[in-house]
Amino acid sequence: MALRTDEAPDATARGTLVGFGAVVLWALLVLLTLGSGAMPPFQRTAFCMILGGALGLAWLASKGVSLKRVFTQTPRAWAIGVGGLFGYHASYFFALGHAPPVAASLLNYLWPLLIVLMAGFSTGEPLRPMVLVGALLGLAGAATAVLAESGFHLEIAPEHLAGYAGALAAALIWSSYSVLSRRHGATSTAAVAAFCLVAGILATFCHLLFEAATVWPADAQAWGFFMLLALGPMGAAFFLWDYGVKKGDLQTLGALSYLTPALSTAALTLGGFVAPRWSSAAACGLIVIGAVLASRAGRHARK
Questions:
Q1: Which secondary-structure segment (H or E) carries 21?
Q2: In a 10 Å sphere around its CB, with 0-12 CB exposed, 13-18 middle and 19+ buried, how is residue 7 labelled?
Q3: SS3 label, residue 284
Q4: Is residue 79's pLDDT more than 80?
Q5: Count of Cβ atoms closer than 10 Å to residue 128 Cβ
Q6: Residues near 96 by Cβ (< 8 Å), separated by ≥ 6?
Q7: pTM here?
Q8: For residue 3, is pLDDT > 60?
Q9: What whole-number distance in Å separates Cα of residue 58 and Cα of residue 40?
């Protein structure tokens, strides 16, 4: 997709920056999840998405946006939006329940690389080698960060094949959702509020069907973390990401997404949940180098 105006590079950079805001919010996901206490995953997802969707609709209504228009989307837009948001979380939760968390996380972290590889088919732009190098370095850094949690022990067993398949499905769903959202850029980001609401309702059904108990935060502090989780990583981040993949540099944004585990590790360390480790520093170094290479390649391509 060729750039046709002088303002286009600045607009693309702004879109990439907005999308990166979602990466920053997702880096707080683990910290806020731990702070909000133990809770069944589908219940947590249902509450956060319904709250995020409802608040999004309220904000849009306050701006004079027609809610009827927000819900009036094509069947394809509904399939992409709800399928991406709900399908990703359902697949990832299934993976965590049927495979070791380390293996599931490693396979799930393929989604930024898949976005980089798939972006060319969506935008018509050639795959930029330095963006690919940056994404591969990011994957190496993410793998180092995840493996460090298990003492660099990776368990691969045939009985966990269903879980591995779930993690791969999650990576494919989120990368496909991101790329397809770009291809259907005519769908307004406002529609994400409706998609979140429906995805939250589906998660509620899954909670009632598959989870034995409903558990709420134990005290005011836990409720505070829970609300921040719903407003940020499980709420506003979806709107920022949608805007970023539609208006920004998709290849660069995919590579920059590997900063999530690095920033997450930093947040957990500052929050006192984990102790500083050399492996974390090495992982962050690889990810940051990859992100710098990808962002520089993206800026050069827009000139």
A1: helix 8-26
A2: exposed
A3: helix
A4: yes
A5: 21
A6: 41, 104, 163
A7: 0.86
A8: no
A9: 27
